[in-house]
Design a protein that fits this description.
The complex is a heterotetramer. By secondary structure, chain B is mainly alpha-helical. Chain B is about 45% helix and about 0% strand. In chain B, helix 2 runs antiparallel to helix 4 (about 80-90). Chain B starts with a helix and ends in a 5-residue tail after the last helix. In chain D, helix 2 packs parallel to helix 9 (about 325-345) and helix 2 (about 40-50) packs across helix 10. Chain D is globular. Classes of the chains: A mainly beta, B mainly alpha, C alpha+beta, D alpha/beta.
Chain lengths: ~110, ~100, ~150, ~425
């Protein structure tokens, strides 16, 4: 995995519903694509995405090969308190990449 | 029947085009790039079918160097290219 | 250089435009129906309350924006637990399963998926009371005009 | 001439025909074809129908046509908009009836077109070549009013000149932002030619400035050729942001020329926003466009799948692999004219083949091209395998110069065929 793009508002009012956007660079090899020589490229996808807010898992996704390359996942959260929002992507090899963002809630 | 008659009649008015048989597949496209003489892109007016066929086949096989015609001619069979050439030659009587 | 492999893809990929003109087909292909049964454990699905938004005409199925909304207050005792996306004609029927919580605030997700052909895409939501709802959309995937891929 | 009473006109022609020795021809027998839209598709189609002896009326409200192909050179500053403009005088002098009004509505059942002055015209077959309309509902913040501040310049004319003036007025060092939509839209490689020529303008005239291209997709026409040329020619003046790097525009704010993307925001000195598009309005009003906003057609005849006796050509139609280009519209128009003439004679058209050729300028003297050959398949046009493709990725400069010269020659020839 390479780099992720994350869009989390830096500030929010308590009770606001905030929109979060994430994009992770990844080829998401489907396991169905042949090379020029006709060999199938083995499947290699991110199969799990988890978002925690203040240490609690609040949103997650199970991904299948029909998710596009560089998976884009956008969702909402209710801003309850200032803290850290963590995002993690886990691929077929079991490797996990984590990124965080902080939010200030007034 | 009446329509056919009318079209034939109109052909007399507006020139011989209407009396032409339909252009073979692909032939109508050529004039989008090949028009009057004096352009960077060669005119096909007055060229005979044999010359045109030979050129098209040479583009298709790669024997003749080209920027685009090599890519286009690969989309046609030899017979189709020959039919296009015959049609282009016939256009010299038109207009 | 320019022997576009996409042509092979396209030959497989176009079609079904006529299908779009008829009312949305009720029946789904067997594998999609099977995947949905597995997700709901065979429970009944109400065909309402879920909106699935995908552009109707796609020239490429590589990265297709999909937005799902479910009618729900997203309160502590009445919320959407899961939203699953399914498709009819890709090699596999599953696309993704989103797990939501009351903290989500809204039953709304936006993502990008792959579609190998014109087909029906379906979103099924599992509510906190264990009931299921769905919404679907028929989309046309043509082919990317003048895009070379080698 | 009264347009409402075409029977009178037809009667006149029938009389002529009688004089010429066809006493069996009655007035009703002369079919009338209406073409709506006088661009590369419509003007060509009207011309070829007329030459095939078909009575044709072309409905086009504008007195002059402004060509989109080559309009990127106007933005670049090396070409005047007047060089893009063509009158319909040649068509008129050939005897084609041109009605300088807007087609207000079409009644497909009655085969009747109503013009904006209330006049009606009836047809045996209708050809719609309306081009595209911007979808001003599709991108938050972008409507007709904001297009005056952040031009799309995706229909050539005043918008083209506006974008050029804005670039000329910009201080050296200003940021230029282009927003490119997802497919389908008019002229697939057009945004990238424009980006190239704007970068060329900046490099030569405003070297401290830079162009950022925000794209809602990851793949585009002639991509490798463009990107290689950009790396060589404009490394400091053009930054390309694809979908995968957050390039999708989600909102624009016209008041301060801000472009908002999924992960970032850019405030520009000049912003060129190309919004999502749909088939021209009259195609929607005629019922020829489906819920996608575009017109499904039978590729054998270009006849609408939704409305019999209506044919759609050019950018408005769903053509499959065949792109929305001027060349394609012109090629489709010639074939459509022939096909409609055959249908009116009761003949069955043979399966066609079509070709598209499209040049793009990466710099004024650096041209690249893509070609395709197409046949009907799967209800649209599909590529003929093994044909077509792009210019070679590696080629000496003289090949690029030659393709730029051919591009220029092509413009002269095709506009002569359509309007000359």
């Amino acid at each position: 995995m390479a780099r992720a793009l994350i869009n989390v508002p830096a500030k929010a009012k308590r009770g606001d519903i905030i929109e979060i956007k994430t994009l992770m660079s990844h080829p998401m090899e489907t396991g169905f694509r042949p090379t020029q020589e006709g060999k199938i490229i083995p499947r290699d996808i991110i199969n799990r995405f988890v978002c925690t807010y203040d240490g609690v898992a609040v949103f997650s996704v199970d991904l299948f090969p029909a998710m596009s390359a560089n998976p884009f996942i956008s969702f909402t959260l209710r801003a309850t308190n200032s803290g850290v929002i963590t995002f993690s992507w886990t691929d077929d090899k079991g490797e996990t990449q984590v990124q965080t963002a902080s939010i200030e809630v007034e | 029947m009446r329509i056919v008659l009318l079209v034939t009649t109109l052909a007399l008015i507006s020139g011989p085009v209407a009396a032409q048989s339909p252009a073979p597949p692909g032939a109508l496209t050529c004039s989008g790039c090949h028009g009057a003489a004096g352009s960077e892109l060669p005119s096909l007016r007055g060229k005979d079918a044999a010359t045109i066929t030979q050129a098209l086949l040479a583009f298709r096989s790669g024997a003749r160097e080209a920027t685009l015609m090599n890519r286009i001619t690969k989309g046609f069979s030899e017979d189709e290219l020959a039919a296009i050439a015959v049609w282009i030659e016939a256009q010299k009587d038109v207009k | 250089m320019s022997t576009p492999t996409r042509r092979t893809v396209l030959t497989l990929g176009t079609g079904a435009i006529a299908l779009l003109l008829s009312p949305a087909a009720r029946a789904t292909t067997a594998s999609m129906a099977e995947a949905i049964r597995a997700f709901t454990n065979g429970k009944a699905i109400a065909a309402s309350g879920v909106s699935l938004d995908i552009p109707l005409l796609l020239e490429s199925g590589n990265s297709v924006p999909a937005v799902v909304k479910v009618d729900s207050p997203m309160s502590e005792d009445n919320f959407v637990r899961k939203i699953a996306l399914f498709n009819e004609k890709n090699p596999l029927p599953n696309v993704a399963i989103f797990h939501l919580t009351p903290q989500s605030g809204r039953a709304w997700v936006s993502t990008r998926i792959r579609l190998s052909d014109s087909q029906k895409v379906m979103a099924v939501a599992e509510m906190s009371d264990g009931s299921f709802r769905s919404g679907s959309i028929e989309v046309i995937v043509t082919l990317p005009a003048c895009v070379e891929q080698n | 001439m009264s347009l409402t009473d075409r029977r009178q006109i037809l009667g006149g022609l029938a009389a002529t025909a009688t004089v010429l020795g066809a006493p069996y021809v009655s007035a009703q027998a002369q079919p009338h074809v209406i073409v709506i839209g006088g661009g590369f598709g419509g003007a060509t189609c009207a011309r070829f129908l007329h030459r095939a002896g078909i009575k044709v009326t072309l409905i086009e409200e504008n007195a002059t046509y402004t060509s989109c192909p080559f309009s990127n050179l106007v933005i670049h500053g090396s070409r005047e908009i007047s060089a893009q403009q063509f009158s319909y005088d040649a068509l008129k002098s050939e005897g084609i009836t041109i009605v300088a009004q807007r087609a207000q509505s079409v009644d497909g059942d009655a085969r009747r077109v109503t013009l904006n002055d209330g006049t009606t015209l009836t047809y045996d077959r209708l050809i719609l070549s309306p081009g595209i309309d911007m979808r001003f509902d599709a991108l938050p913040g972008y409507d007709a009013a904001s297009a005056e501040l952040m031009p799309h310049a995706w229909k050539a004319g005043a918008q083209t000149v506006l974008l050029r003036r804005q670039l000329e007025a910009m201080e050296d060092g200003g940021l230029v932002v282009m927003s490119v939509p997802a497919n389908p839209y008019r002229c697939p490689p057009g945004p990238y030619e424009r980006a190239s020529l704007i970068a060329h303008y900046l490099k030569t005239k405003k070297p401290k400035s830079k162009l950022i291209v925000l794209d809602a997709k990851d793949q585009f026409s002639k991509q490798k050729l463009f990107q290689e040329a950009w790396a060589n020619l404009y490394p400091d003046h053009l930054e390309y942001v694809p979908l995968a790097a957050g390039g999708k525009t989600t909102e624009v704010i016209a008041s301060d020329k801000t472009v908002v993307t999924e992960f970032s925001r850019y405030t520009a000195a000049v912003a060129n926003i190309i919004p999502p598009q749909q088939a021209g309005k009259i195609a929607q009003l005629a019922g020829a466009a489906d819920r996608t906003g575009w017109c499904p057609i039978d590729p054998m005849t270009f006849e609408s799948k939704l409305r019999p006796n209506m044919h759609v050509i050019g950018d408005a139609a769903i053509m499959g692999a065949m792109p929305k280009s001027a060349f394609a519209a012109n090629a489709q128009a010639k074939l459509c004219a022939q096909t409609v003439a055959q249908l009116l004679r009761g003949e069955t058209p043979a399966e066609p083949k079509l070709v598209n050729t499209c040049y793009s300028l990466v710099a004024p003297d650096y041209g690249i091209s893509v070609a395709g050959v197409y046949r009907p398949g799967n209800g649209v046009f599909v590529d003929i395998e093994g044909a077509g493709g792009t210019s070679p990725l590696t080629a000496p400069q003289d090949v690029r110069t030659r393709e730029a010269a051919y591009s220029n020659a092509w413009f002269g020839i095709i506009t002569a065929e359509v309007f000359g």
